[in-house]
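can u do me a favor
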């Protein structure tokens, strides 16, 4: 739901996810809204009309979502996912390929590999696999169940 902060009135209800929404992010110009759900999808919405512009089948529930500065990609805990620019008047619901288009360094959806440009680069042993993670540029930080955090960088 999108609410008016001044009056508390519900302005819109965005419907389309089949499970709980874990993360919500506005684009920098507030024209689009991205949502990540337990249904393992990311949806891109037109913030003013409420129309679903894109659906990305990620294959994993994501909890950390933000737009890059020009709204051409989403930063997530598994890496940067490229999104297409959309025109609300011509696109109502676009379903993307099963594998998201991660650019640069990323974490595989099963958390077994640290990847670069889609290629497996570093195998992550089970005791080092994440309970949470963050990817920024070539850096990957991983928090594990023991309370430890480790970081690595893919420099080519």
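np, heres the sequence
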């Amino acid at each position: 739901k999108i609410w008016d902060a001044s009056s508390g009135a519900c302005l819109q209800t965005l419907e389309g996810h089949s499970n709980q929404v874990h993360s919500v992010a506005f684009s920098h110009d507030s024209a689009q809204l991205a949502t990540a759900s337990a249904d393992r999808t990311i949806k891109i919405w037109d913030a003013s009309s409420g129309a679903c512009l894109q659906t990305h089948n990620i294959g994993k529930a994501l909890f950390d979502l933000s737009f890059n500065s020009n709204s051409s990609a989403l930063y997530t805990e598994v890496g940067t996912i490229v999104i297409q620019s959309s025109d609300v008047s011509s696109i109502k619901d676009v379903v993307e390929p099963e594998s998201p288009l991660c650019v640069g360094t990323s974490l595989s959806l099963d958390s077994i590999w640290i990847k670069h440009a889609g290629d497996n680069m570093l195998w992550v042993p089970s005791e080092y696999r994440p309970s949470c993670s963050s990817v920024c540029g070539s850096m990957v930080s991983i928090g594990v169940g023991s309370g430890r955090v480790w970081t690595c960088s893919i420099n080519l």
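DSSP finds no helices and 17 strands in the chain. hope that helps!!
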